[in-house]
Amino acid sequence: MITEKIDLYKWAGVERKGEEKGYLYSFRHMVVTEMNVRKTRPAILIFPGGGYCFVSQREGEPIALQYLAQGFDCFVLDYDIAPAHRYPVPLVQAGMAMMYLRREADKLNIDGEHIAAIGFSAGGHLCGCISLLWDDPALKAMWGEECERIRPDASVYSYPVVSSDKAVAHVGSFDNLCADLVDRKDYSLDKKVRPSAKPSFIWANSPDDCVPVENSILLYSALHKAGVPAELHIYADGWHGMSTCDEEVNEGDVSDPMFRHIRTWLPLSAEFLKRFGFVVKNV
Question: Which UniProt key words apply to this protein (predicted)?
Fold first, then answer.
């Protein structure tokens, strides 16, 4: 496995203005030189959650290793957070990460037309921002018309923060990202779905008392109404932040069948992506 830490600011030639993070961590398959064939792999960009006030370790490397086993090359974004950094910093860093993958696809031996994104909780919101708001003013100012390339070729939303409606919102995430800098309604993802969005897989847990499951339902409904291929899985049990649902990310006993059942989101999401061409190719 090839691991690497990429400074996205250095790569993009952008001066840091107090930003501390904006680093991309790669988990890539090694090139097997003894085989007389070159392989390109689908890629997935991973956004851990944390309410825009921390970046969860449980939703970074453990997720990358799972998708790596499914043939993906994986990249985890460590992005800046509140209170020191708010909009547009996380969104700009997410955009830089996707543009890095697009522009360096050949060098990385990844399929530049099959780059997915996955996000967890507030990371799901960040995933949604580049999936649905790829032409956000901050991204367009940086990349011009090329900002369309920031949009992933498919998206996976894991118990995502979606709506700014106070009845269902994870208010802390919107406070931390938007503060009084931008109108949080403009970052309510369920209101920003367009038919040009790409295939989307969503999963959540009904008893989630942190980010209400209605967020996932609203997002699915908006995608379905717009004619975007979408799949929604809501589990009857569980709680917020279950990630890979195994001993790597949980302190307690994971032998309960509930964990095994909810863990099915991983192969289901990989199968969903493969249906849309996210497969290893010989070139």
Answer: Hydrolase
What are 44's strand-pairing partners?
74, 116
Q: Which two tokens stand for residue 247?
A: 């001993």
The per-residue pLDDT for 33 is: 78
> Which stretches of the chain score pLDDT less than 50?
none
Instruction: Spell out the residues 6+ positions from residue 222 whose beta carbon is closer than 8 angstroms to its own.
Output: 189, 190, 191, 193
CB 150 within 8 A of CB 122: no
Q: What is the pLDDT of residue 126?
A: 98
Q: In angstroms, what CA-CA distances link 249 with 52, 55, 190, 205?
A: 20, 14, 29, 17
Report the predicted TM-score, pTM, of the whole model to 2 decimal places: 0.97
Q: Do the Cβ atoms of 132 and 189 come closer than 8 Å?
A: yes
CA neighbor of 29 nearest in space, from 74, 86, 59: 74
Joined together, the tokens standing for residue 47 give: 């956004």
Q: Check residue 253 and give its pLDDT.
A: 86
